[in-house]
Write a structure and sequence with these properties.
The chain has helices at residues 2-33, 37-40, 94-99, 111-128, 130-133, 142-145, 160-163, 165-174, 179-188, 202-220, 228-239. It is an all-alpha fold. It has a domain at 94-239: Cytochrome c-like domain (Cytochrome Bc1 Complex, Chain D, domain 2, Orthogonal Bundle), CATH 1.10.760. 17% of the residues are buried.
């Protein structure tokens, strides 16, 4: 009796094992059918402007979306891609002329047009410059707070007189540079600052330079040039007195 039961178990196991072998074989064949070389190494795609019956115009390449702007398009100027080294002794180059340049002749000097330019400069400055130079121009942007090399402030800081006299001297110099100097540094980069020529349009560089002048005036204007009301407001702010 025991021998008969053992034989039945062995026969049943052999049948199940045989079925499992066939199942594994079928599964393996199914997997290998999806690994054809023609599908993996020669994927179905189109070459640029290859003919295609799928689209009505017979061209596989689709036309550009209306309003698309070329990456190399837009305004430019003679200095935008100038990367030559500047020298104080070599003959003047266009880039060196830019360093000492004032605002362009068509840059607004007053009124609503100037206000719009300053607002544009503030917007571009906050986007591209404030990460290093800080929103007030003190050289305390977020990446500086996280360890990046600190640029000089756009105006002298009392805290730098003893702690960092080199930065203090450079900040004093920045009060005297013409707007073309700022525009040139945006165009060509300087030190750890790379060129922003591909990011900031030429007209926006002048707007940023004008806005930096506003930051400097707001932080480094002599007290004697303030009105009586502004002097009183300044004294109240220093004392921590809030006045309407």
């Amino acid at each position: 009796m025991k021998k008969s039961c053992l034989q039945l178990l062995l026969v049943h196991f052999a049948k199940r094992t045989e079925g499992l072998k066939w199942l594994v074989l079928l599964f393996s064949l199914a997997m290998f059918t999806g690994c054809g070389k023609s599908d993996m190494s020669e994927q179905p795609n189109y070459e640029p402007h290859q003919s295609s019956a799928f689209f009505e115009d017979g061209n596989s390449a689709r036309p550009l979306v209306e309003g698309t702007v070329s990456r190399s398009g837009g305004q430019s100027d003679a200095y935008e891609f100038d990367r030559s080294a500047h020298s104080t002794t070599a003959p003047s180059t266009p880039a060196q002329s830019l360093v000492n340049a004032g605002y362009p002749a068509d840059f607004p000097q007053s009124g609503e047009p100037l206000r719009r330019q300053l607002e544009r400069g503030q917007e571009r400055y906050n986007i591209y410059c404030s990460v290093c130079h800080g929103q007030t121009g003190a050289g305390d942007g977020m990446i500086v707070q996280r360890g990046f090399i600190r640029p000089p402030s756009f105006y002298p800081l009392a805290s730098d007189v003893e702690s960092n006299p080199d930065l203090y001297r450079r900040s004093q110099n920045l009060l005297q540079v013409p707007p073309g100097y700022v525009c040139d540094k945006i165009t060509n980069g300087y030190g750890a600052m790379y060129s922003y020529a591909a990011r900031v349009a030429p007209t926006d560089r002048w707007a940023i330079a004008a806005y930096i002048r506003v930051l400097q005036s707001s932080q480094a204007m002599p007290r004697s040039e303030l009105s009586t009301f502004e002097q009183k407001a300044l004294d109240a702010a220093v004392k921590g007195v809030v006045t309407p």
